Amino acid sequence: MPTSLSRRRFLSRSTAVGAGTVVAASGLSRAESNAETGRDDGIESVVERAAERALSDHDAGGLAVAVVEDGDVALTGGYGHAFRSEDVPVRADETLFRVGSVSKVATWTAAMQLVDADRVDAGASVNDYLDAVTVPRADYEPVALEHLATHTPGFEVRGWGDAVRDPAYVRPLAESVSTDVPTRVRPPGELPQYTNYAAALAGQLVADVRGRSFGASVEATVFDPLGMTNSTFRPAPSGLVPADGTAVADVVDFYSDVAPASGLHTTAGDMVRLLQAHLNGGVADGERILSADAVAEMHRRWYAPHERMDGMAFGLFEQSRGDARLVRHGGSVPSFAAEFSLRPETGSGLFVVAHGPEASDAKQEVVDAILDRIAPVESGGARPTPSAMPERADELAGRYRSVNTADNATSEKLVFGLLTGQPIDVRVADDGTLVTEQGDSVDRWVEVEPLLFEHVETDEMLLFSDDGGEVSHLLRGLSAHERIGYLERLSVQGWLATLAAVTALTGLVGWPLARGWRRVRGGGSPPPSATRARWVAGAGVGGLVLFVVATTLAVVAVTTMDRPTLFNRPPEWFEAVFVVPTLGAVATLVAVGLGARAWHRSEWSLGARVHYALVVAGTVVLYGLLHYWNLLAV
């Protein structure tokens, strides 16, 4: 039986492998090391120390790193052990990692190839090029490739269909993008909203124009020319786990159902070639995949909410780091985290990927160390201070919720509202500083232009947008939040739902008990009109109870089936569950009318009318909440 290796032994072993890979990838003979040619300047020791800190300080098993400086490969290295393989060291040219949304770099590169070849106009409607799916038409201008690449197509966020738990459930891309097509909720180009669907749709566009599958298209036009022989969009490549008979499906329960957005498996040795292609005008090892003009186009700014804020290149995020401008993309899936970052002006870039429970922290430890080298930031300098109150101070305060929730038109709205992101509370301090609170994070900002604020400690910018004379949105970077009213707050709705449910149940439970008590004691019966009204109101309350029961049974049923989970991909029949509360809502509307008639005619006793009104009011509140969260079949 092989003996287990310590992290330090892994580190030393895999660093040696990485050094050898550097030589091979840079086209030097094996007798020439980077140190001997004077090109390294200590990059190997910088990365090795950072990798050692990352693996010792965080719960991560392994890392792979690639660095390019001045357009040439400076380092590729592996550190720690391979995924689920404690006795197998990470090898930069061999060890597969999942890179999550860094997959989009390959996707947008393939899309830019079509623009470069004049086969696609980035400003034309994507419907001109798509065969497998049609983007819904709306009272807006058409969605173009440039909108997809800058995450500004105006789609709601779609979570369903992003991933599945078993590779057998992964669908063809054409089926995935044409099922549960997201609603268009705003004009394209107006507001950023990061979605996997945008990249998935761009991938299908590549496939339709090329006339072959997305994976085959990228392999033929990007991977093969660059010699990226270990890169694949297959959902469960065997190389992800050791060749000891272990199946990927036995140790992994996340598989991308939108491969262009998050389905790439690759190595550091492969990704260093993609780095070079982006930093050398489209060429790596003598093979060209893009013209120099197309690379420049891909790296230029295509969208920004304000000229002083970071924005989007073509599929890549801008990041200001001191005086340096980076274009980058990060990514993560369960157990993996990755970063792909370029500084085009100096021909420098990095790729870092890690695996383990704290993969994101481990990855960032190494990324920060490399960026301190290729894009150093000088400390110090004057920070902004408020000179007066913000120009529209009275209009800024309030709570802002992510547009992922606020603009969702499906029942997924509740999932996003409960599970994704915390709202941002905004207030203006007495000294004119804008204060934002998000969870435990408290930040202070100073207005530098009307509605534009700069962080008091960093260069981060925050922008409020004006819609028809009213402040409607807050943008922190490219993360958009919509202003919500007091009654839209989850805490307020929670208390309202609790009070309304208790009140409604006093009718559903209390009326039958009171009727039974009267029979026991021999008391008189309520007027027939009151009995009918209570039956109708009870049906409304019962619709809520049945909805809870039906939803629970549906969840249990789907869990026991050999199919994707309810969260990943609900079955078509699941929509029938929402018919139950819809019928209950109709009954409640009838109950409102019956109650109004009883008050108008002074029927029943005063106490009976008051109690009936309270029960119906509570039921109306509950159905109002269901409507707000898109849980009615309307």
TrEMBL record:
Residues 49-362 form the Beta-lactamase-related domain. The chain crosses the membrane at residues 494-514, 535-558, 578-598, 610-629. SUPFAM superfamilies: beta-lactamase/transpeptidase-like. It holds the Pfam family Beta-lactamase. The keyword Transmembrane helix applies. It comes from the Archaea. Keywords: Membrane, Transmembrane, Transmembrane helix. This is CubicO group peptidase, beta-lactamase class C family. It comes from Halogeometricum rufum.
